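Hello,

Following up on my earlier ticket. Below are the two sequence lines again, exactly as submitted.
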Amino acid sequence: MIEKLKEKLGDLIKDTKVHNERRIYITVDKKDLKKAVKIVFKNMGARYVIVTGVDNFNKFELLYHFSFDKEGGIITSLRVFLDKEKAEIETLSDLIPGIAWIEREIWELLGINFAGHPNLTHLLLREDWPEGIYPLRKEAKENGKK
Amino acid sequence: MGKNKKVVVPIGPYHPLLEEPEYFELHCEGERVVDVKWQPGYNHRAIEKLSESKHWDQVTFLVERICGICSTSHPIAYCNAVEDLLGIDIPERAKYIRSIVGELERIHSHLLWVGLAGHFLGYNTVFMWAWKYREPVLDMFEIITGNRNHYAMLRIGGVRRDIEDEDIPLLKKTLEGLKGKLEMLTKAVLDDPVLAARLKGVGVLTKEDVKNYGAVGPVARASGVDIDVRKDEPYAGYNLVEWKVITTENGDVFDKAVVRLLEIFESIKIIEQSLNAIKGKKGEIWKEVREIPEGEGIGHHEAPRGETFHYIRSDGSNRPVRHKVRAPSYTNIPTFKASCIGETISDVAIILAGVDPCYCCTERVSVYEAKTRKKLYGYKELVELSRKKTEKLRREI
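Thanks for your patience. The regenerated structure is below:
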C-alpha cells in the first residue's frame, strides 16, 4: 500500500512515517492538501474517517484520517502543519460533505480557520462563547480563560 | 399549515430518560422536510481535554463514561490505540474475553433499538418483547463482569477479570434460551405487512451518500457497503471464530432493522465459539505494560452503531498529550441531511431512530409556526401522527 500511495501522491509527499503495515502517516504541504485528499478519497476510494487537530506547542497539526477497508484496514493519515499565527487552511467540505462538522469543531476548539467553509458556526460550544478563547489549545486553563 | 409556508420543527434537546441530548431543526414545507440542521453540544463534557490530565490507566475508565449504552466500545478502541502505539499483542484468552463482552453489548444495544423503533411506530408489543429479552443479556453481563452496565473489563494489555469455568454452562444456557425467543421476535418484525409498508422505501441512504458522509456500522451495511472493522482489520478474537458480515441493499429503515436483527444471531455465534475456546483452559489475561513511549497510535472497534475511532499521542510521560475520540454517530447523524429531505414529518421520527442515535431527540419533537412561534405539534402529537399512519396502513392491508 505504501508503494501505491507513494506512486499516486508523488511529489506531494514531504515525509512518510510507517508505524506498522496498517498505520501510515504522510506529511503534505498545506497548499497540496486538497490535491492529496482528492487522490486518496476520490481516486483511490478510501473512506473518510475523521480529522484530528493537535496543538503540539510550536505548531498546529491536522491529521486527516482515511481508511482503506478492503485492503486490510490500512489507516492513512495525511498530516499538515500550520503556523500558530494566523492558522488557516482551505475547507474540504466541497469534496467531502461529511467533513463540514469536524471542521466547525476544530475551528471553535483550536481556532483554526477553514477558508471557504459555508457555515463556520459553533457546534459544541454555546452560541455566545467569547471570541479568541480556544479550549483545546495547550495554553487554555481549566476555567475556560486564556 | 398554510400553503408554501416554511415551518421549523425543533427536535430536542433534552429528555431525562436517555443520555446524549441533541437538537435537530427540520425545515418543512407542508408535510415535506426540505432541510435539516443538527446542533449537538448540550452534553459536551470535554472528555478529550479531560483525558490529557489523566493517567494512561485512568483514561480507560474515563472513556467508558462517554456512552452508557455502548460503554465497552470506547475502552476497546482506546486500548487498541495504546497497544498499536506500543506494538504489542495481547494474550489469546484476553482476546476472546474482549470479543465476548463486545458482542454481548451489541446484542443488548440492538435489542434496545428494536424495542424503541417498535414503540415509535405504535407497536408496543415489540417494545416489551425486545426489552424483556434484553434482560437475560444484562444478567450475563452481571455474571461476567459484576455490573449490568459500565463493565470496567478492559485494561491496557488485556482484560481485568477472567471468565470462570463454572459460569460458562449458565452463560451458554442463557444464550441458548435467547435464540428461540429472538427468532420469534425477528420473524414478528420482518414478516409483518404493516411494518413493511411503514418502513420499506423510507429514509433511503444511497451508497454514494454513505461514502460522502463517512457513515459506518449498520447504517452503511444496510446500504450494501460491507465495512466492518471486525472483519477488515481483525482485533480481539474476531479472526479466531467463524461469523459473517450482514449486508442488505436498499438502505431504507426496514433494511437497517434487518441488518441489526440478523447481526444479533452472528453475535450469539461469536460468543458461543469464544466461550467454547476458553472453557477448561488456563491462561494469562493481561500483559504488563509499564511505560508508554513517545509516539502516536490509532485504534478502532466496531461498536453496535459502527466504527469507534481513537487517536492518541504520547510524549513519553504518564498522560496522553492528545486523545481524539470519534464515535460512530458523529458521522452517522449528518446522513439525516441525505435521508430525511423529501420525507414527511410523520416518517422523520423513525428515520432519525433508524440511524440509532439516542432517542432523546425524538422524545421532544414540537412543531412551531415559523412566524408566530405558535406551537402546533408537541412530541405527543407527532408520535400520535406516526401511530395513526401505522393504523391507517393496518386497515388498508
